[in-house]
Amino acid sequence: MIKITDWKRVSTALEEIDTPALNNIPDVIETTDEIDSSIGALTNHIRTVVKKCSREVPESIDRRKLPADALELLRAKNAALRLAYAYPSRENRSKARALQRRARARMFEVKNEEWSNLMEDISPTHQAFWKVTKALKSEGYLPTPPLKKKPDSSLAVDDLEKAECIADSIELQCSHTLPPHDIQHITHIEEEVRHKTSLDPADDLAPVSRDEVQKLVKDLKAKKAPGLDGISNKAIKCFPTTLLSLLVVIFNACLKNCYFPPVWKEAEVIGIPKPGKPRDLPASYRPISLLSGLGKMYEKILKTRLSDYLFSKGLIINEQFGFRPNHSCPQQALRLVEYITEGFKTKKRTVAVFFRCSQGL
């Protein structure tokens, strides 16, 4: 079964603001509790609307694209199956089986013909060219095999056991193998951080505008997977002006309170097998975190303001290339090569220190 959502209906339904969920949102959002309750009410409203505008249908072939003879053969097969079920005589069952074999063989021919036609017509400028290339390179879906537990090497068979097994492996990889060298220093730093965060901000960040939120919504990629809240980017793109204005109020309340809602920190974690690693070992999977789309919009708002502040104060060193616009790590590697080459010309030695994270996630 696949779920089909009528996104035009979603857009129309979201324009209705007199709903039980939205009526729970306070008129003025100021405190962190009001922020959390508003996000919860908005999330419930969106999920309810999308659910009402969705339906489940069986996954099947689009018969409108099939040749006429294949369609006629499928109809005859289905009629023969119904007749054999209603009147299960030897003749009817034999005829139904024969038509099943003919229909299966014809569908195999149709698929081969479609593939041959695609290979003859496709070119690098064709819309489906890179999709086909990616599909041919990928292994397709492979189910996760039973995982070996440690230390008894027993097998995790069902999905819950596999999830716990991978979670334990990730926790082990992220835990410190050695105790901190200076606990007193770390405690002092933590106290300083708590003290700094308790103070009112010296410089107010620029408030969020509706135009800024509209641009963020426009730039969202519709095919990205949703986070734990189940709100897809397609649903966010259906927001009317009233809900966009509500988002602006929520974002500004978060900025004013120096607050990042905990619900936007929660993620759905999926284990992706590492290439070339044995798939029956928990350590062979790297985690991918699916975060809330609304939370990622707020992250971009914070990132823009923090970047503007850091660059205006000259706090970013020229040597930093990661996470900077118009900069990339290959450029920095090229600079290193040029620096070494220049050293060869001037008969100078170049010394470099490299760090390798063996358990990089």
Automatic annotation (TrEMBL):
Record-level Gene Ontology MF annotations: RNA-directed DNA polymerase activity
InterPro entries: RT_dom (IPR000477)
Ranges where the Reverse transcriptase domain occurs: 272-355
The protein's name in its UniProt record: Probable RNA-directed DNA polymerase from transposon BS
Gene from which this protein is expressed: RTase
Keywords from the named record: Nucleotidyltransferase, RNA-directed DNA polymerase, Transferase
